[in-house]
Design goal:
It is built from 18 helices and 20 strands. It is α/β, with parallel strands linked by helices. An eight-stranded parallel beta sheet has the order 7-6-5-4-3-2-1-8. The chain has a six-stranded mixed beta sheet with strand order 10-9-11-13-14-12. It has a six-stranded parallel beta sheet with strand order 17-16-15-18-19-20, sandwiched between helices.
């Protein structure tokens, strides 16, 4: 449910807090200018500045500039509280007082400092008038009350709890008090917690943090992505939530693909990346998170089947699911859009009936491709590192299993790589050698990088190449239309993915 109690920081974009953390005053000035174009609320991590001289230089500039329209939160966290400032409490308080003189209206003071102050209060010091009590636990999510009463913590104006979430239940437990607490900031930390950080404002947290430059905590999402890709400051109780599950999942461009479509279609929906090391634990949290549907990638495409209430006959025959729809009662229905994507993509290059196609790999994507091509009348051959798995797949789809050594002499109309070999972050490796590419078309299901080592080898031999982007977009479009019952903005979705890949190449 949405917290309807007003945040002390305001509403909408004002609750999205940009985090500035840099070693020099010059870089922090640049970050501040960039941040204020996205949000008026900014946290200044003064402890990240490399010296007192840099702190003095930055605050002198800030005082001169007078950014009166923004809300500046000064933080100068000591090493005892997880920050970078060496020295004692007087050193921290000195810089917070200097920050007030420079125009900061808020300060963030960690519990470690409060505990050592007389009467656990800073009201007698000339720090910024609005005070946030900051509690960090970098090891776990501690037991939490149902509500967080700000008045119980030294008469501060807000309380922030940032804790490492090792599971989705941990992150949900940390967000729970935000529904009833007016000035409570919930910050789930860690890679698993990333999607819940994005949903924090929707859950009622008074603020959500996002870095402009270098990240200051695990599982953070950049300010640009928080505001423009995930629209975290616009999400509310009516927002429909979708996502992708996998391990790893950080490389996925599915959020770019689906969120581009939601934005273009003006839909109140968001698509999030869920790192899922343990499938059973994640599925227990699906209803609490509010998921309407999710994509499934490595390594869960086959395992997910045993948790489904129902499954499309074709997906059941394939034995792999890449799309799950969540019913109102929380039950799961499985589908496979990889199947449709293979047919759509490859049929645009060759006539499938009576063609001979090699599938390299025997996992979930390979199964979808094998059944798709066999149903279209192609002769399917399967080759995989696990020869037993290759034989099982070949038998299931009515094809043949080939040993790796035979690829130097066998000829095909098309070769499909369905393995992750050559995928980001190891893009320089090809699953097949140039001597094994005897075909008219090579298709790589990997889309990141855009031009894989395999496709480069094929192009050198003047073989027609098909990037994994084509299949990736096709399967995602089918998912999006299945969930929304609307026509997808295909051109915009493809353009967004290509632009993201090109941007990575330029870095």
């Amino acid at each position: 449910m949405l917290n309807r109690v007003p945040s002390p920081f305001g509403s909408g974009p004002r609750r999205l807090c940009a985090v500035l953390a840099s070693p020099t005053a010059h870089l922090m000035r640049s970050q501040l200018r960039a941040a204020l174009k996205q949000t008026p609320t900014v946290e200044l991590r003064l402890d990240w500045l490399c010296s007192d001289a840099e702190r003095r230089k930055f605050l002198a500039w800030l005082r001169k500039e007078k950014f009166s329209s923004g809300t500046m939160i000064a933080t100068c966290r000591r090493t005892e509280g997880g920050g970078r400032l060496s020295g004692g409490i007087p050193h921290e308080l000195f810089w917070l007082m200097e920050a007030r003189a420079a125009g900061c209206s808020w300060c963030d003071i960690e519990m470690e400092t409060f505990r050592e102050l007389p009467q656990q209060s800073v009201r007698e010091y000339a720090v910024p008038s609005k005070i946030m009590l900051s509690i960090h636990d970098f090891d776990r999510t501690p037991p939490l009350p149902r509500t967080v009463e700000v008045a119980h913590h030294g008469h501060v104006d807000a309380v922030k709890i940032a804790a490492l979430s090792r599971s989705y239940s941990d992150a949900l437990r940390l967000l729970a008090p935000a529904r009833k607490s007016r000035a409570f900031v919930a910050v789930p930390m860690g890679e698993v917690a990333l999607p819940l950080r994005i949903l924090a404002l929707r859950a009622g947290s008074a603020l959500a943090y996002a870095p402009v430059g270098e990240t200051t905590a695990p599982g953070q999402v950049s300010l640009h992505q928080m505001k423009n890709l995930y629209r975290a400051d616009q999400l509310n109780h009516a927002t429909k939530i979708y996502g992708v599950i996998g391990d790893p999942v950080g490389h996925s461009l599915s959020p770019v693909l689906h969120n581009t479509a939601f934005i273009a279609s003006r839909m109140n929906a968001v698509y999030l990346p869920f790192l899922v090391p343990a499938l059973r634990e994640f599925l227990k949290a699906v209803r609490a998170i509010g998921l309407r549907g999710f994509s499934v990638t490595i390594p869960h495409k086959e395992t997910i089947l045993k948790y489904l209430k129902s499954c499309d006959p074709l997906a059941a025959e394939i034995g792999a699911v890449n799309t799950v729809t969540v019913s109102a009662d929380g039950s799961l229905h499985g589908s496979n859009t990889d199947y449709l994507a293979v047919l759509h993509t490859l049929a645009s290059r060759i006539k499938l009936r009576n063609s001979r196609v090699l599938i390299f790999g025997a996992g979930g994507s390979a199964r979808a491709a094998a059944f798709a091509l066999a149903s279209a009348g192609a002769s399917v051959a399967v080759c995989a590192r696990r020869e037993v798995a290759a034989r099982q797949l070949a038998r299931a789809c009515g094809g043949e299993a080939l040993p790796r050594r035979s690829l130097r002499t066998e000829k095909f109309d098309a070769i499909l790589n369905t393995t992750p070999i050559g995928m980001h972050p190891h893009p320089g490796v090809s699953p097949l050698t140039a001597a094994e590419l005897h075909c008219r078309v090579v298709m790589d299901l990997i889309y990141r990088p855009h031009r894989t080592a395999l496709l480069k080898l094929a192009a050198q031999k003047r073989i027609v190449t098909i990037s994994g982007v084509e299949m990736f977009v096709a399967q995602g479009v089918a998912q999006w239309e299945m969930w929304t019952r609307k026509n997808a903005p295909v051109a915009k979705m493809r353009a967004a993915v290509v632009a993201a890949l090109q941007s990575e190449t330029r870095r």
